[in-house]
UniProtKB/TrEMBL annotation:
Keyword entries, A-Z: Dioxygenase, Lyase, Oxidoreductase
Keyword Lipid metabolism: no
PANTHER family: GLYOXALASE FAMILY PROTEIN (AFU_ORTHOLOGUE AFUA_5G14830)
Name of this protein: Catechol 2,3-dioxygenase-like lactoylglutathione lyase family enzyme
InterPro entries, per the entry: Glyas_Bleomycin-R_OHBP_Dase, Glyas_Fos-R_dOase_dom, VOC_core
PROSITE patterns: VOC
GO molecular function, one term: dioxygenase activity
Pfam families: Glyoxalase
Taxonomic source organism: Microbulbifer rhizosphaerae
Domain VOC: 1-118
Length: 123
């Protein structure tokens, strides 16, 4: 199990603004902030960090777990509103498993950011 992950970005302020808006539907907040880096998380513990640094190419893929399909949809809308680029609209990705509901958005630095819900729909 991962405890936290860090991502180097070109512009801290641009990426901070993007992630503040994009991750809000998932319950993430900016918890700690320093001059050119900060940590986002839920419940007071940062587990996703961004920091100005040498950009990683090709971009990384990071998936955030969502508790519902509605949260995945809200993440997608918020990420696009924050300047992200569509890389796969919300929907089932049955290639992974029958209840894999996810979406993909490219962040300002070209990283592939995903929100995914694994919860089966009550039938």
């Amino acid at each position: 199990m991962l405890d936290h992950i860090g991502l180097q970005v070109h512009s801290y302020e641009r990426s901070k603004a993007f992630y503040l808006e994009a991750l809000a539907p998932l319950g993430y907040q900016l918890i700690l902030e320093y001059a050119d880096w900060g940590g986002f998380g839920i419940g007071g513990k940062p587990d996703f960090w961004i920091q100005v640094g040498k950009q990683v190419r090709p971009g990384l893929h990071i998936a955030f777990r969502a508790d519902s399909r509605e949260m995945v949809d809200a993440f997608y809308r918020a990420a696009l509103d924050a300047g992200g680029k569509d890389n796969g609209p919300p929907g089932l990705r049955e290639i992974y498993h029958p209840d894999y509901y996810g979406t993909f958005v490219m962040d300002p630095d070209g990283h592939n950011i995903e929100a995914v819900c694994h919860t089966p729909v009550q039938r």
